[in-house]
Structures are given as structure tokens and as C-alpha cells.
Design brief:
Length: about 650
């Protein structure tokens, strides 16, 4: 029978059973060493019966408690090695003193006194050898088990301190086998760091073929966004999964762990190097004041709450229509800050509830993020979009003026620019409402912040693509030429807060979204970041297909951020100020009353006709009839 066949069942035993097994071996060694000690003393083997058995029993009675007290039975037996010998020596020394004293004091017949000296020495040697053998057999078998596990073979990009710490953590976790490092520093090429060879990045394709590498881990926490993007561009098209460590600030509080690795996300590709905010201006607006955020549980609303909380307001009011979303953001904030956080359930269309909240809490500033934003859903439910996005904004704004709110900031969208769908038109009309109010009163400073898509928000294309990739595809896009602006949620929220500090009344601030991104390129990047290849007529052996499913009602091929062509710069390099037409409040207020009546009486077509009249740039891409027909097809109505 092989050693492995013996060791494998032993490794599966409970710890208590292993302790009993080792104690039994120690007892047998006590018997053996007494017998050998008698032979060495007397020159011939003697039976252990009669009075000589007293020496055996006494040895077992003293040795096992001594070994227990020395902690020899609490050690992991498979990892015992030379480091256990001092503990055995200490235990045998204590045991030997007691054993020799008793043997000498009682002068047992047929048991020479020198046995009290010889036997403990033999027991020290025997138990040390036994422990080393146990550790070698069990530990070697355990390592073979670990080595036999399916492991990803990886390279670490970055041989600096973070890369070295990551390599040590991965080696300890046994989850991956590290082939080596990649690094841009030519002086490190063909040298060894922590016993691992450093290769130039250009060798990666060859390493993948020779060593069956499955993943590359980026250990570049201090690299600039531009440099990271250059590295990621070089990895595109390779059959690799890519994981990354967090940034320097995330690593500042402790050592690098294997668990710190996370899947590389599309946000890592599209996010930009941050611009330092003007913290004094922001804190001057927010610090020590009561701030109200509507739609506080949404993607933008929740991040706004986090960034506002960091500025130190006296109180933060969270208004949200969804109970679960309110619970989630309230819990998140109360765990992260000692601020007074007030969760408020309610709708922005409920005038009584809004008045009750603002009279009771007297907010100094309102961030109005509550809105319906999903284009097809609002196109499908036009009256609800008008009620929430237009009338809701009107209600909150008028009550803000009535209760003396100092600042009011509307979160708008690039879809408000020359809209082709009802959602975009409602957001543009909401902007016109605030611009009209800004000229008609001086109590509240109204401003609007307009930006494009945020990555990872509810209804965003990024979570949809992730789900489709997890399911094996296809990844669906509506048109091969469709483009969108993208920004990460934290950057968008930070710039909204920054823009609010610059408002003087009636401004439409426009965030610099960078360059527009083709959605088909976004899909291709996400597929390749996950380690898959794109399946196409040119590459039929690819993993995941990109399917074009056709434009949705109201959808545009590209979005715009400005209606006019003369944006004005501001003190912040990523915030512009638009100059656009307005509607006189006297006329607009009457039209809003008409719109409310049409919504209340369920008149869809007249309501949309009025919306088109008020938002001159609104050119609908679908008709109400189209939507009724489509709805019947979707629900199976004849």
C-alpha cells in the first residue's frame, strides 16, 4: 500500500481523532523507549511484565500530560517540522525530571535508577523523529492535494511593492499559480523578484501559449488613468481575464490581500483622472446647513447624498418614493457617518407631503434628482412621465420658493437637448420651468446641471451587457453607429455638487463628458475584458456574438449636450455654462395649468401636443398610435 493511500484517509479525520491517534503513538513510544533503555542498561532484552511494567506505566502517566501541557497536541500535524523540536525538548525535559526523581526515590526492584535518565533521552529522540515523519507524510500529501486542484496560471503586471505583496498573498492562498511578473522597467527584464521572473509586456502572447496563462493581475495602483488605458489597450484581443487592485487610497490602510483583486470593469476604461474639487466653495454652500435630496435612493441621488454628507451638512433629508431604495441609502449613510440623516417616504407630485416636509425641516438647499429616466418606459407611459418629471419639478420648486429655500439644483440630462422622446422633452420642460421661476422671483437660486449617461446606473446599458455576457450572449445593441456620452457616477455627482456652488440663478451647467463612445465598441470592450472573444462572420470561432436588434421608440443615434453653440467656460475645467432660450413665466404658468388638467383627465395626445408646443426642439420619433399598437403586440392583445 502506498504512503498516499494511507495519508489520504488520515487527512480526512476530525481533529480530535488525529489527537487521539498521535497520543496513542506517543504511548507506544514510551513503551518502546523503556524497553530499549533496559536493554542499553542491562545488555540484554528483558520482558516488560512484573515490576518492570511499573516503569512503563509511570512513563505513560507522566509523558502524555507533559506533552499536552507543552501544546504538542494542539499543533497542525501536517505542518510539523524542525520548529516542533524545541517544544518536544521542553516537554521531555520536564517529563525526564519527574520520571528520574520518582525512579530514584522509590528504587523499584529490577528497574535500575539510570533508566530515569536514559529513557527520557530516548523518548526525546523517538518523539522528534515520529513528529517529523508525520509532518512529512501528511504535509506532503496535503501539498499534493493543493497542487492537484485546478489553478489559474497568472502573471502580475507590475513588479513594484504592490505586485510583490500581491504575489506573496496569492502564493499563500494557493488559488493561482504565478508564472511571473510583467513590468515596463527595462532594467528588471530577465531578473527575478521574489523568486519570479520579470518579463517585458511584449512577451505576454508568447507566455500565454507556453504557460497556458488564464489571467493577468494589474498591480498598478499609482499609475495614471492614461497609462492604465494604454496598458489595457495592449491587452485587448488576448484570451485573458483581467483583474485589478484598487487605487492607492484604498490600499493605504493595510497590506495587499488576494481578496483585494476585483474584476476589471468598463468604468476602469472610461473613467478619467479626477480634477481636484474646490472644497472651500462646496463646503461654504453645504456645511452646517440642512440639505434635501429628492430621488435619494436612485443611482445619482444616492451618490449625491454620499458626497454631500462628506461636506459636513447639519442634516441630510432623503426624499424617496421607493421604500426599499430609501431603506438602502439610509442604512448605507448611517453606517458611514454620524450625521443626522432623515429618511422621508413621499412623491414629488404630492403637494401636501412636500409642504409638510419643507415647513417642518426648512432645508437650505434642494438637489432635485427624482425623475423617470428610462426612455422606452416613459415613451410607453407618457402621462406618468409628464406628471413626475414636469409637474413634480414644478411642485418641489414652488414649495421651495414658498418656504424660503436658498438654492435649488435640478439634475437634468443630455436627452433634453433637441429631444426625440417624451422623457427628454419632459426634462427640457423642467429646465424651462426653473428658468422661468428664476426670473420671476429672487428668494431661491435655481440652477440646472445637464450631463449624459452614468455608468452602472439603473437602466444603464452596462449592467445589461454584464448580464448578457454572464449568460453567454448575445450582447444586444440597437444600431451599429449609435453613440453615447458616459461618466462614472461618483464623477457626475461630484461635478453636480461643484456646479451648485457656482450658481447665481437660472444657469444651465453642462458637464464635460469627454468623447462620445460607440455602443458597439463598448460591447466589444466589455466582452474582451471578461476574457472572451467576439463572434462575428470574420471570427466564427469567437465566444460571444454582438446582435443588432433595431432602434427603440424615441431613441436617437447620438446625444448632444448643448442646444446652442456658445457654451461659456466656468472656474472648473469640466463644467460649462449653456446660453439657451427661455419662456416667459406668465405664459408658461398658464400652459402648465392646462398640462395638469390634461394629465388629470388622461388626455394623452393633447398633452403630448402641448409638450411639443412648449419644447420647440421636440421632434418625436414615434407617435402615440405606434405605441398603442406596440403595446398590444407586447401583451398579446389582438
Amino acid at each position: 500500500m502506498s504512503v498516499g493511500k494511507i495519508a489520504r484517509p488520515l487527512l480526512g479525520l476530525p481533529r480530535e481523532a488525529k489527537q487521539i491517534m498521535v497520543a496513542t503513538i506517543d504511548a507506544a513510544l514510551c513503551v518502546l523507549t523503556v524497553w530499549l533503555a533496559l536493554y542499553l542498561r542491562l545488555g540484554h532484552f528483558v520482558p516488560l511484565g512484573g515490576r518492570a511494567s511499573i516503569a512503563v506505566v509511570l512513563s505513560i502517566m507522566l509523558a502524555l500530560p507533559a506533552f499536552y501541557l507543552a501544546g504538542l497536541y494542539r499543533m497542525a500535524f501536517r505542518s510539523t517540522g524542525a520548529q516542533v523540536v524545541p517544544a518536544i525538548a521542553l516537554a521531555c525535559t520536564g517529563y525526564g525530571l519527574g520520571y528520574a526523581t520518582i525512579i530514584s526515590a522509590y528504587a523499584f526492584d529490577t528497574v535500575p535508577r539510570t533508566i530515569g535518565i536514559i529513557q527520557p533521552i530516548l523518548l526525546l529522540l523517538a518523539t522528534s523523529i515520529a513528529r517529523l515523519i508525520i509532518g512529512y507524510v501528511l504535509g506532503g500529501q496535503m501539498q499534493r492535494r493543493i497542487d492537484a486542484r485546478p489553478k489559474g496560471r497568472v502573471v502580475i503586471y507590475g513588479a513594484g511593492s504592490s505586485g510583490r505583496q500581491l504575489a506573496a498573498a496569492i502564493e499563500a492562498s494557493h488559488e493561482f499559480k504565478i508564472v511571473g511578473f510583467l513590468d515596463d522597467d527595462r532594467s528588471l527584464y530577465n531578473t527575478h523578484v521574489n523568486g519570479l521572473r520579470v518579463y517585458p509586456p511584449q512577451r505576454l502572447a508568447d507566455l500565454i501559449e507556453r504557460h497556458a496563462i488564464s489571467d493577468v493581475f494589474l498591480a498598478l495602483p499609482s499609475a495614471t488613468r492614461q497609462r492604465r488605458n494604454e496598458i489595457l489597450e495592449g491587452l485587448r484581443g488576448l484570451p485573458l481575464g483581467i483583474r485589478t487592485l484598487p487605487g492607492l487610497m484604498d490600499l493605504a490602510h493595510g497590506r495587499v490581500q488576494a481578496s483585494d483583486l476585483r474584476e476589471l470593469s468598463i468604468e476602469d476604461l472610461l473613467a478619467r483622472d479626477p480634477v481636484a474639487p474646490d472644497t472651500k466653495a462646496v463646503e461654504g454652500k453645504l456645511q452646517g446647513h440642512t440639505i434635501l435630496v429628492t430621488g435619494a435612493g436612485g443611482s445619482i441621488g444616492s451618490e449625491l447624498c454620499r458626497q454631500i454628507a462628506a461636506a459636513g451638512p447639519a442634516r441630510l433629508l432623503l426624499l424617496e418614493n421607493s421604500e426599499f431604495a430609501l431603506y438602502a441609502i439610509h442604512r448605507n449613510l448611517t453606517e458611514a457617518t454620524e450625521l443626522d440623516i432623515v429618511p422621508l417616504l413621499g412623491s414629488v407630485t404630492d403637494e401636501v407631503r412636500l409642504l409638510e416636509i419643507m415647513q417642518a425641516w426648512r432645508p437650505t438647499m434642494v438637489f432635485h434628482a427624482a425623475a423617470y429616466k428610462h426612455v422606452p418606459l416613459v415613451e410607453h407611459n407618457p402621462l406618468e412621465g409628464l406628471r413626475n418629471n414636469v409637474i413634480g419639478t414644478l411642485r418641489v420648486a414652488e414649495i421651495a420658493v414658498q418656504t424660503g429655500v436658498r438654492d435649488f439644483v435640478l439634475i437634468s440630462t443630455d436627452k433634453a437637448v433637441r429631444p426625440t422622446n417624451i422623457m427628454g422633452a419632459t426634462k427640457r420642460l423642467a429646465e424651462l420651468v426653473l428658468q422661468g421661476l428664476a426670473e420671476n422671483q429672487s428668494t431661491t437660486c435655481f440652477s440646472m446641471v445637464r450631463f449624459g449617461n452614468v455608468l452602472g446606473s439603473s437602466g444603464s446599458v452596462v449592467p445589461l451587457f454584464r448580464e448578457q455576457i454572464r449568460n453567454g450572449g448575445p450582447v444586444t445593441i440597437t444600431h451599429p453607429e449609435i453613440t453615447r456620452y458616459f461618466m462614472t457616477i461618483p464623477e457626475a455627482a461630484q461635478l453636480v455638487v461643484q456646479a451648485s456652488a457656482m450658481a447665481r440663478g437660472g444657469e444651465v451647467f453642462v458637464l464635460d463628458m469627454g468623447q462620445p463612445v460607440r455602443i458597439i465598441d463598448l460591447a466589444r470592450n466589455m466582452i474582451e475584458l471578461c476574457g472572451f472573444s467576439v463572434k462575428s462572420p470574420e471570427t466564427p470561432s469567437g465566444d460571444i456574438e454582438i446582435a443588432v436588434v433595431g432602434m427603440r421608440p424615441g431613441e436617437k443615434l447620438y446625444e448632444e449636450l448643448l442646444i446652442g453653440d456658445n457654451p461659456q467656460p466656468t472656474a472648473h475645467p469640466r463644467i460649462m455654462m449653456a446660453t439657451e432660450h427661455k419662456l416667459p413665466w406668465d405664459r408658461l404658468r398658464g400652459d402648465l395649468c392646462r398640462l395638469e388638467d390634461l394629465i388629470a383627465t388622461g388626455q394623452v395626445e393633447p398633452a403630448r401636443a402641448l409638450l411639443q408646443e412648449l419644447v420647440a426642439e421636440f421632434t418625436p420619433a414615434s407617435t402615440i398610435v405606434d405605441w398603442v399598437t406596440l403595446q398590444k403586440k407586447v401583451v398579446g392583445v389582438a
